[in-house]
């Protein structure tokens, strides 16, 4: 069977716990600030209500794709337990083919909601982390699109193999990583990114992936596009979303006066609807609108799937929804310079420890975490980094500057500031 889309990711049984005892607090340090949900220490807190739903990025997106009219299959790993049967029952009800495997315990999550409608999730991954290459039947991977949400552990290694296989078939690919994967950094994800058509992530994940705190989402999207994806979309909660596509930045807002019930699954809803729009050949503006429509439907109800819209209703709303979209063309000279930071195939720099670098931005980032042994190996008998920069990028002035650097930190900053100056 040829599917319109196969979605891979986690499957969980989620329990939503509601109390009146939570507070939202903000904690700042010298580098950042974060919001936290807080509960009184030592108290026994009464739960007002419990709701049980099927969750996980894999099943959330599968339901959204199916409701939006795509022939959908879900690839993941479930346990041999009662919770797995509940998930399979849901998939059958939503007309989704299960092409995964069984084993261990099914994933489980506890969702703690705040009085301000934000949430913290305690998650047990279980079988979600144990998808093996041997669990995947290659003949099942016949699809026009392949979409992956977050996978970690052994499942992430399997995911990378699947991306390589499906890309060779000509299928389009989309990826929505999580914080876990974004923290790995560009170097660890570059083999996935280069095989992507679409990358969707939130602002925090984009910052983690690039290892920078740049607040300009358009610039973050532009930089991520240089690693392979044709479309990069960065979501930013109530501020909407920003996309980079073909040398142009698109920014979309959200609906005003929207009543938020619960925010779990909003990112999955947005990403799946955006990709569905591409499947149907919509303009990027309408793809962004469709993403907002589905994500706002999601957060207006309890759970990640309850209020997800069906194709007819979503497309009807697309005709009438009033969402502002701003767009502007990225400076072509700046874009040309950015592309020149990436080495041609076959001219990557290979570190003593085997890691390959093909981008000057990558070199700048990785230098700070590089071991002294590796750094000294490449600088004591001639500066190998300077030679690579001079020979591959024809940047003799930068090569000269880093040769006089006194440490790996100074060398990293020298490269970073030099590249920034080229874009000014």
Brief summary:
The chain is α/β, with parallel strands linked by helices and 424 residues long. Helices cover 39% and strands 22% of the residues. A 10-stranded mixed sheet has the order 8-6-1-12-13-14-15-16-17-18, sandwiched between helices.
Overall description:
This protein has 424 residues and is α/β, with parallel strands linked by helices. The protein has two domains: 3-329, Ribokinase (UDP-N-acetylmuramoyl-L-alanine:D-glutamate ligase, 3-Layer(aba) Sandwich), CATH 3.40.1190; 343-422, no CATH class. It contains 16 helices and 20 strands. It has helices at 57-67, 82-93, 154-168, 179-182, 186-193, 203-210, 217-225, 266-279, 284-299, 311-320, 332-339, 360-369, 372-377, 384-393, 396-403, 408-422, and strands spanning 3-8, 12-18, 23-28, 33-38, 49-55, 72-75, 77-78, 96-98, 101-102, 107-113, 119-124, 143-148, 172-175, 198-202, 231-235, 241-245, 248-252, 325-329, 349-350, 356-357. A ten-stranded mixed β-sheet has the order 8-6-1-12-13-14-15-16-17-18, sandwiched between helices. The chain is globular, with a radius of gyration of 23 Å. The protein starts with a strand and ends with a helix. 43% of the residues are buried.
Give the percentage of residues in beta strands: 15-25%
| Cα radius of gyration in angstroms | 23 Å
Our count of domains comes out at: 2
**What does the average pLDDT come to?**
88
Q: What is the CATH first-level class name of the largest domain?
A: Alpha Beta
- How is the largest sheet built, in terms of strand order? 8-6-1-12-13-14-15-16-17-18
Helix content: 25-40%
Distance between the termini: 52 Å
Assign the structural class, choosing from mainly alpha, mainly beta, alpha/beta, alpha+beta, or little secondary structure.
alpha/beta
Shape: globular
Low-pLDDT stretches are 335-339
């Amino acid at each position: 069977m040829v599917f319109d889309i196969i979605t891979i990711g986690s499957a969980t049984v989620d329990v939503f716990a509601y109390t009146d005892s939570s507070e939202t607090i903000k904690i700042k340090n010298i580098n950042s600030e974060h919001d936290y949900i807080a509960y009184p220490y030592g108290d026994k807190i009464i739960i007002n209500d419990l709701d049980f739903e099927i969750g996980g990025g894999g099943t959330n997106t599968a339901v959204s794709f199916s409701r939006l009219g795509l022939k959908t299959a879900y690839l993941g790993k479930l346990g041999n337990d009662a919770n797995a049967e509940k998930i399979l029952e849901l998939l059958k009800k939503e007309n989704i083919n299960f092409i995964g495997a069984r084993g261990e315990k099914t994933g489980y999550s506890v969702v703690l909601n705040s009085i301000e409608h934000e949430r913290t999730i305690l998650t047990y991954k279980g079988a979600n982390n144990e998808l093996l290459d041997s669990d995947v039947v290659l003949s099942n991977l016949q699809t026009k699109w392949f979409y992956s949400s977050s996978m970690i552990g052994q499942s992430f290694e399997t995911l990378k193999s699947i991306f390589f296989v499906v890309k060779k078939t000509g299928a389009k690919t989309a990826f929505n990583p999580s914080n876990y994967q974004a923290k790995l950094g560009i170097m660890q994800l570059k083999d996935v990114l280069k095989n992507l058509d679409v990358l969707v992530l939130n602002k925090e994940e984009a910052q983690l992936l690039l290892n920078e705190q740049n607040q300009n989402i358009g610039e973050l999207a532009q930089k991520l596009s240089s690693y392979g994806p044709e479309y990069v979309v960065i979501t930013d909660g109530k501020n909407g979303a920003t996309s980079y596509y073909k040398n142009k930045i698109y920014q979309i807002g959200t609906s005003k006066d929207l009543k938020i019930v619960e925010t779990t699954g909003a990112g999955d809803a947005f990403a799946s609807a955006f990709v569905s729009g591409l499947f149907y050949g919509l303009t990027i503006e309408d793809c962004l609108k469709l993403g907002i429509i589905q994500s706002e439907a999601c957060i207006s109800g309890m759970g990640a799937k309850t209020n997800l819209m069906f194709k007819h209703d979503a497309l009807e709303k697309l005709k009438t929804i009033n969402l502002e979209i701003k767009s502007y063309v990225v400076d072509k000279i700046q874009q040309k310079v950015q592309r020149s930071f990436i080495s041609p195939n076959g001219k990557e720099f290979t570190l003593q420890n085997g890691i390959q670098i093909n981008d000057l931005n990558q070199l700048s980032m990785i230098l700070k975490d590089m071991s002294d042994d590796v750094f000294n190996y490449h600088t004591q008998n001639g500066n190998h980094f300077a030679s690579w920069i001079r020979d591959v990028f024809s940047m003799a002035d930068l090569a000269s500057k880093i040769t006089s650097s006194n440490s790996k930190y100074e060398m990293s900053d020298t490269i970073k500031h030099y590249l920034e100056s080229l874009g000014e």
